[in-house]
Amino acid sequence: MTKEVEVAPHHSGKDYHDPPPAPLIDAEELTKWSFYRALIAEFVATLLFLYVTVLTVIGYKSTTDPNLDADQCGGVGILGIAWAFGGMIFVLVYCTAGISGGHINPAVTFGLFLARKVSLIRAIMYMVAQCLGAICGVGLVKAFQSSYYNRYGGGANTLAEGYNKGTGLGAEIIGTFVLVYTVFSATDPKRNARDSHVPVLAPLPIGFAVFMVHLATIPITGTGINPARSFGAAVIYNDEKAWDDHWLFWVGPFLGAAAAAFYHQFVLRAWAAKALGSFRSNA
Questions:
Q1: Which of 204, 36, 3 lies closest to 121 in space, CA to CA?
Q2: pTM for this one?
Q3: CB neighbours of residue 95 within 10 Å
Q4: DSSP structure string for the chain
Q5: Which of 16, 49, 58, 184 is the most exposed place for a label (fewest CB within 10 A)?
Q6: Residue-wise pLDDT tens digits, 219-238
């Protein structure tokens, strides 16, 4: 009779596993229904996001219009607008995270692409779906409330009077950095393993980051930090001022997203050091 010996499982020393980098171009994605389902989810989520948030902005302006002798302390205020944007992001990321990742923002998609989380094809198609969803969402607002929409600026992002374009660009860069950095941190498998005893849903800090950034930057740019949000409103409102300032709401968010991706991946997660260590060990 032989004695059975239990073999202890081998541990790699890590209690988490990083997903493999996404390929730069993955043509096989185009043959999968899950890819198109994700595009539909991004389109619908961005449509709903713009519909609710732009309605909130227009509703606030209509209830505080001095030309109508409205109560200047009425309406939801800037705090309510910030809650609308942050709350909708929380809800929609929660609903779509398991389908598309819940990006709802070309800047987030761009940051995740730079970090090799999504392929180039998926990133481009996500951005297209997000922009189309934003246009349709704002289009619904105009269709339902055309008089209020045109009277109160259509929810379009413009640089406020008294601020120069450098200030506006800086606000968009830093605001988007906060958002995309939060996205990376909230979805980091290392953080999830280390803090598994803390039951925090990833959409919660992401939505709260959107809320906080809006509080800080609504007086400056109306808060973009989402090129699809700014693009959809600019297309439907089609005002010269909105188009003159529009580049701020693409360049700023993309620079902020790139900085957040670099900071998280190369500084906090030390991608460069890990790659160099792997190269030396194989040499």
A1: 36
A2: 0.86
A3: 15
A4: -PPP-PPPPP--S-SS-PPPPPPS--GGGGG-HHHHHHHHHHHHHHHHHHHHHHHHHHHHHHHT-GGGT--TT-SSHHHHHHHHHHHHHHHHHHHHTTTT----SHHHHHHHHHTTSS-HHHHHHHHHHHHHHHHHHHHHHHHHSHHHHHHTGGG---PPTT--HHHHHHHHHHHHHHHHHHHHHHT-HHHHHHTTTS---THHHHHHHHHHHHHHHHHHHS--S-HHHHHHHHHHH--HHHHHTTTHHHHHHHHHHHHHHHIIIIIIS-HHHHHHHHHHHH-
A5: 16
A6: 999 999 999 999 999 999 99
Read off the pLDDT of residues 264-280 as tens digits, 9 standing for 90 and up: 998 987 765 555 454 44
Average pLDDT over residues 253-273: 87
Total count of residues recorded for the chain: 283
